[in-house]
Amino acid sequence: VATAGFRMILVVLATLFATCLLVANILAVKLVSIGGWIVPAGVIAYPLTFLFTDVIAELYGRRTASKVVWVGFGANLLMVILVFGGKLLPAAPFWESQPAYESILGMVPRIVLASMIAYLISQHHDVFAFHFWRKKTKARFLWLRNNASTMVSQALDTGLFITIAFWGTVPTGILANMLLTQYLIKLAIAACDTPFCYMLVGLLKEKVKQPPPIGAEAMV
């Protein structure tokens, strides 16, 4: 039987995951220049979602991590619907920021579709790969499992999103540059989160007190 602490920690981790996901999608409308590379500002938040799914997978099992991914998808879809609804509501006569609202929060359907597809495939792969390596390493080498799963998942996410969202709308050279730039930055951020993965698992494992056995699924 799951304890209150067991459930509360999961709620906190899932909330942090969903927060990073939604914030990343909002930040993505701003393009920033990092060392001459042009990337969406969301690149600072989205890689953190893989950190939280890895921690959840380590503490609660693959099934629970997959459920959290679906919850994040639902939250993202709800945000899109509500933002679109806000766009349709008539603006107050004195409010002059409707164009800014539509420019910042008005989401192009193709971008939304690309984001949703990339999210579902990359996040589910991350959960699968993390547990694949967990079995192979007999639950050892957390750094390897964290990075091996995230490296491929980030490649899937970047490749799917950039290709679906921008194929045919920008020159091939620029498209290739966007793919490489975003992947390298995401990879660097993901590598830097390894110590935090160890820290979170180390701090929370004793409080959870129900680590999933190798190859098994934790029930929540």
From TrEMBL:
Family annotation (HAMAP family): Q_prec_transport
Keywords of this entry: Membrane, Transmembrane, Transmembrane helix
Name of this chain's protein: VUT family protein
Keyword hit for Membrane: yes
Organism expressing this protein natively: marine sediment metagenome
This protein's record includes keyword Membrane: yes
Membrane-crossing residue ranges in chain numbering: 38-57, 69-91, 111-133, 154-177
Pfam families membership: Vut_1 (PF02592)
PANTHER family: QUEUOSINE PRECURSOR TRANSPORTER-RELATED
InterPro entries (alphabetical): YhhQ (IPR003744)
